[in-house]
Amino acid sequence: MEIQRAKKKIKISDDLITCRPISVQIPSDLIPELLKELPVKTLARFMSVSKDFGSIIRNRDFMKLYLRKSSSRPQSLIFTIEGKESGKHFFFSLLQSQDQGESSSPVVTYLMNCRALPYTTIAPSVHGLVCHGLPSGLIVSNPSTRRSITLPKIDTRSISMYHHLGYDPISGDYKVLCMVKGKHGGWGRHLANELRVLTLGKGNFWRMVEDFPPHCLCTHETPDICINGVLYYVALLDTAVSHAVMSFDVRTEKFHLIEGPDPNVRPKVTRYEGKPALLFAGIADCRLNLWVLEDAAKHEWSKMSYVSTTVACDAHFFHHIFCANDAGEIVMAPESVCSSKPFEVLYYHPRKKTMRSVLVEGFSERKVPFWDKDPCHNIISVFSGQLDNLMFL
């Protein structure tokens, strides 16, 4: 009996020995590869626990590696919603899914809020960062880390400024292009009097742009898009009341004026199958028109058009056209989020001629700071391309 007990103790002891954790030395070059798979919140905790991890995570090369990895994942829509009573604008993200057989509705994720402006905030996400704020104090925010930086005030007498955020994938630099309205150009136009550029993280000071094509700034806030290091935005030609597209190379800081396919319409700039594109809904014929820029040097556009009964084609409201996503679908949504009715996002694929509907949940006042009690909140903008970014501003 004693012999059996002794054998059992020896067996238990042997099992404990074999179950002891084995210390494994991970090669240093593999650590960034492992860390890039983790979410931003986890990496933020790692920074406060280990100095070694902190130095890796804050490294510029690792941030670019993490951004490339995030860009390869399914990207989200970013919603900007107006709070009437709170005086704030709210940002939400929605992960887009191609699975049309989902059993439950997707839920939006609250990102952040900012102070409302005298004018509408249309702030696209540029590789995970958002530029917003008053003309006297622009702010660049990272919704992933919920950190922001206020840019230096521009010394100018003009209170009317337009700003665009661009990203250069080669250098990893973010640049803010700020345009100050100059003299009145007639027909509600203002000439671009001053153009300045600021590179984030490199002194954070404004530099004057000396050479740019003469063009007018629109009298309303218009969206912009940054594709492969080139920023595109809608401009007005100085010679006539016609719309065009201005491109700005973020790395070289060179401008190029591209003639629009139809000078008489005011389109939205978006991305379609990796190319700059313009969206426009016809009021008279309820048509949705999509122009894709095939050759910027030759000003060549291709056009797709279809009749839609879901967009706002007259005084009656259906869905509004906001953007196109990376799957080649045009994204349409209601003009507001109301607690009394479901929120439905429509995705139309022009090439496949298919339409899918997605019911979205999660716009809850209990989860959102400063969310007011108004039953309906206006949708200011919807953009595709929101992704996780590790840049700690």
Describe the overall structure:
By secondary structure, this protein is mainly beta. Helix content is 13%, strand content 42%. It has five helices and 25 strands. The strands form five sheets. Strands 7, 8, 9, 10, 11, 12, 13, 14 and 15 form a nine-stranded antiparallel beta sheet that branches. A five-stranded antiparallel beta sheet has the order 3-2-1-25-22, with no helix packed on it. A four-stranded antiparallel beta sheet has the order 16-17-18-19, with no helix packed on it. Strand 23 and strand 24 form a beta hairpin. Helix 3 (40-49) packs across helix 4 (51-57). It is globular and about 65 Å long. The termini are far apart. Residues 6-22 and 184-188 have low confidence and may be disordered.
Chart the SSEs and their pairings.
Blueprint: H1 2-19, H2 31-35, H3 40-49, H4 51-57, H5 60-72, E1 76-83, E2 88-95, E3 109-115, E4 130-134, E5 137-142, E6 147-150, E7 161-168, E8 173-186, E9 189-199, E10 207-208, E11 215-217, E12 224-227, E13 230-237, E14 243-249, E15 255-259, E16 268-272, E17 275-281, E18 287-295, E19 300-307, E20 320-324, E21 330-333, E22 336-338, E23 343-349, E24 354-360, E25 376-386
Antiparallel strand pairs: 1-2, 1-25, 2-3, 4-5, 5-6, 7-8, 8-9, 9-10, 9-11, 11-13, 12-13, 13-14, 14-15, 16-17, 17-18, 18-19, 20-21, 21-23, 22-25, 23-24
